[in-house]
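for the writeup, i need someone to sanity check this before i put it in the appendix. the sequnce is what the collaborator sent (i think, or maybe the updated version? ugh). structure was predicted straight from it, no edits. if anything looks off just tell me and ill rerun, i have time this weekend
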Amino acid sequence: MVMQKVQKIQKKNISEWILKVGDEKLGEGNDGYNDVEIPNELLISNFTDTVEAIVQSTYPNLLQNFQDVDFLRNRAILASTIQVVDDINSYVLNLIPRKSLIHILFTKKIIS
């Protein structure tokens, strides 16, 4: 119960921080660019593969939950460039067993 309250507060704080970044209410102006300090609790440290660390942090137990819509819907990775998005997407798609991926794509195509 206490842990759920802590997680709820953390989510609220992170959400508010992201909104402030988007609204340009953080950082100081510098020739059209802003320096934004990222809180330590949002940083991923002690990793060797950046993309792997981001995916594991955002989608823990992905292989057990990739078919759970709520699991996927409640998480997001913000990326600075299209290249980073492509790298992360490729990494995630390579993790998912091909048979499951084909089933998901086939089912989505029929339902759409």
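Residues 1-37 form one domain. The chain has two domains: 1-37, 44-112.
thx in advance!!
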